[in-house]
Amino acid sequence: MIEKVYLYPSLGGSLSMNRYRKGLEEGLKRNNIEYEVIAPEGSGLFTKYVRYSLMAWSNRKKKGKHIIISERYAYLLHFLTGDTIVICHDLHTLYAEANTAGIHKKLYRFFLKSMLKAKKTVCVSEHTKADLEHYCSRFKGSSRLKVVHNGIEEFWLQEQLPNHIPDWGELFETHRVLLSVGTDAWYKNNAWSLHLLSILPLEFHLIRVGKFAEKNQKLINELNLSERITELDKLSDSDLKFAYTNAEALLFPSITEGFGWPALEAALCSCAVITGGKGATAEIFPGNQGLISLENASEELRTTDHPISVPDYILWKDQVKELIV
Prior knowledge:
Helix content: 25-40%
CATH superfamily of the largest domain: Glycogen Phosphorylase B
Structural class: alpha/beta
CATH class of the largest domain: Alpha Beta
């Protein structure tokens, strides 16, 4: 019987980290497990490394599961005792292509080594686990290392559509719309999507959920695509579901993925997924069945009947049970 779960989230947090936290909270509630979020208010290095560490120390004797939801906060393990779990999402910081500054790489490696102090380290995919064992060999063969995929909200399984049409919804009436969802980090390979759009007929339009970085903004200008792209910032789940459900396909050309929620969400909304199947994508779509390859994307999009994949997924209420056992 679990007495209580204590969650140690990322401060400020990216959209994905905040989503992971909310997912865990949803799963804990569904399983009637009492929990408490442990985190200092404020931001900055002093708050992150001093105030947060002191808060962890003051809670170290509380009985229950202590879950640190990002490997970047694994230093908190030096101030906790007892039943601790840390979640490792990806190791893109250490990839050569990331061009991470040396001091930041050293700090990140310190976080990884700190995870060895946890009673259990959970990777969000087999891909992330393989990367962890590669970059921190002390994890190889560890009985404390486990893989538990990210959960998904039940909302994405519901058949009913939003009862309103967003302002940008008219694009679906006048164009064949492609979607690009997520950050514009190097590993997302969004330049590929822009080059694809440039060779497709003018009837195709790209809705980009999330801003393009400066490098890709320049590419958009070079390829004369400004009028063929609509950039949207944060969307509600309802609006995003509307986009997935009505779009021609999701462009997901990532070089690597720690998990890859957009591809899963799109598939659950019966939206075709164009991807190289790299990283954890192959785990969500075993054998890459039903996916459209990058090589065949242009030819496939010139037709109107696209394959729809059936992904593997786990709901948060079940993910939490796997996580804390």
